[in-house]
Give the backbone structure.
Amino acid sequence: MQSLNLSRRGLVGLGVGLLASGRAWASDGPVVETTEGRYRGRTEDGVQVFRGMRYGADTGGAGRFMPPRPAEAFAGVREAFEYGDQAPQPRTILTVPGPISEDCLRVNVWTPEAGPARKRPVLLWFHGGGFEAGTGSSGLYDGANMAKRGDVVVVTINHRLNVFGFWDLSEPLGADFAQSGNVGYLDLVLAMKWVRANIAAFGGDPGNVMIYGQSGGGRKVSVCFAGTEAAGLFHKGVVQSGSHLRVHTRDQAAALSNALLKTLDLAPADARKLQQVPIDQLGAAQRQVIAAAGYRFEPVIDGISFTSDPWLPNAPKRTAKVPLMLGTTQTELSNQLGRDEALFSMDEAGLKQRLASIVPPEAADEAVRVFKASTPSGSNAEIFFKAASWRAYITNATTMAEKRHAQNGRNNPTWVYQVTWRSPVQGGRRFSEHTIDLPFMFDNVARAPHLTGPASDETKAMTEAMAGAWLAFAKTGDPNHAGIPKWPTYDVAKRPVMLFDAPPKLVNDPFREERLFMAQFPAVRGGS
């Protein structure tokens, strides 16, 4: 018998290739026709993958700071093998190597099988990184495992960020730029429209679309629940560690705008020249401005997309009955703040000093008492991370759930969770950090040993619980499934919260004292 040549060249000769990850792909990939033209994808380990497709036109030049336009039509068949350009952002914080440009309105699709014969639930992911950075091409967001596990279609996108997506130029430039402060949000809207028009060709159901995101992605889901243009384009949403209750006022946006014009040495009358300023120059100037201002570019109340804050004083009416799942991790800020070695050796006096930076100094003693009572380890670092996470993330998530209950009463399609599983990484000192949910709900533990440690019975149990809940929610609008306890909708009498741990458990008002303590302080914008 003749032996097969299993080198890369030999595999290609057989109609098979190898990705950098070692996954095999078929060179004669599926072709799908979209509203712009035909794309050829790859079949990778039984999943059909299409990367780097355009859902919108290049946003550079005259398109900068303007609402997005649909992608231009093309002839022939384009290869959709590689991820597309990432949105302009500081290269120093890029999480994924790759080109950066304003031709960044790109979409990636994972499907068990393209074609209109099946209508699978669609999971449309908004990446993290605040409104400032990030990309849909992160390995943690790879949709292959979820597509296989749940027989669903997974979609990720890139869109405009920071000054390119959220610079309100309506004051110096007038009506033509009336929506410039929200074009990054309008990119999300265009992506949802692209999904509605095209996802059936990829085997998805345009009538069953779940938008979801973590950190900055959760913030994007939050504002889509309130945005005028997003209404009706999605059917359920998941806000993970990113409940965004407020957006910028016109005055806040104008202050950033005026400071940036001054930094660039441009008079307001010359603001149109901003469409020709090089990307790196504009990015450097915005970093100077936000460092001085203490806040960043993000959506703004422009009177069009947003006429008020999205979640204060009330939850948005237009999405009152859209199912919503939301939650956090227990020690979100052990991720961002956990690089500070001094936190792990501080005494109680040091703890109180740190707490005085997140609550009024006179409340620091009470904060120690409240959070020490719920921290069996007695670790001052863990106490601080818990308190800081309540201040920056968990209180806002609780407020969002409360606003939904006030709006809907008994028929409140809202479910609340918290990830309490503690990672063994770095000797366990990161506890339940920001982003620890991603490997489990994406079924990508193998891609995240830096977060979860090696695969284990516990990581398997966490994946079964969380990926199962996200898939159930995508399919039915209810996260309940056989692998978790019964999970009721949220109400302010019992306050049921699903604690994702190994094993998961449902507890009513599990952190009552912490909640009541933090409720006395005003809501903050939170982390990225």
Remarks:
- The longest strand covers residues 204-214.
- The longest helix spans residues 380-408.
- The radius of gyration is 23 Å.
- Residues 165 and 183 are 5 Å apart (CA to CA).
